[in-house]
Amino acid sequence: MTSEPSTPGAALESDRPGRLLRTERDALIPLLRAADDAAFAVPTCCPGWTVRHVLAHCAAALTRVIESRFDEGVFTAEGNDRDIAERADWPVARVVDELEHGMTNAGAAIAAGKGLFDGVALGEWVHAGDVRDAWGLPGAYGGAGLGDALPLLAAFSRQRAALPLHADVDGLDEPLILGVSDGRRPPARYIGDAPTLIRLYAGRPLGDARYELAGATEGELTIFG
What we know:
Layout: H1 8-14, H2 16-34, H3 51-67, H4 77-86, H5 92-112, H6 118-135, H7 146-159, E1 165-169, E2 176-178, E3 188-192, H8 194-202, E4 212-214, H9 218-221
Helix pairs in contact: 2-5, 2-6, 2-7, 3-4, 3-5, 3-6, 6-7
C-alpha cells in the first residue's frame, strides 16, 4: 500500500507548499546574497525583528520541519526567539545558507504531513514579503508564488476556522472562498488585489492599498501574525 497521491492533480496539490518555497527561493536568495550587512539590520513589520531575525526564524522553522525536531514550545513566540538567539553569532551567509537549504528541501517533509505543516510554507513566503517590504522592493506578498499562495491561504483559513469570506481577487476568474461558514453570519466580501488580501490575513500594514471589504473588519481577518 502506498501513501502517495493517487492522481496527478493530487500530487500537484501535495507539492504546492514545496513548490511555493522553491519559487520564492529562486527570487529571494539572490537578493539576500547581493545585500550588504547593513541591510540585514533593517527593522521589519514584525515587532522587534530585523531582517536578520526574520531570516533566522524562517531558516530554523524549515530545518525543524525537515529534521522532525518539534521540541516543547516549538513555533511559539518564545520558541521562535530561542531559535533566533541560537543563530545570533552566525555569519549572515550561514543563515542564508540554512534558509536556502530549507526552502529547497522542506517540500517533501511538508507534503508528508498531509496539510499539518502547509501553514509553515505559507508563513515563510509571507516573511519573504516582509523582507521585500522592509527593503522597499516591489513584489512584497506577490510575484510568481501567488498561484500557490492563494490556495494555501484558503486552506489555512479553513484550518483556523476563520470567518467566511468571498474574495473577488483581481486577475482571478472565480471568487476565492476563505474561512468556514457557521451559519450565523453571511460571508464577508473582499474586492481588490491579491497582495492586499495577503496583508489582511497576515496582519501586515496596508499602506495606501485600495480595496473594498464588507461584512467584516480588518482585524477579524487576521489569522497569523
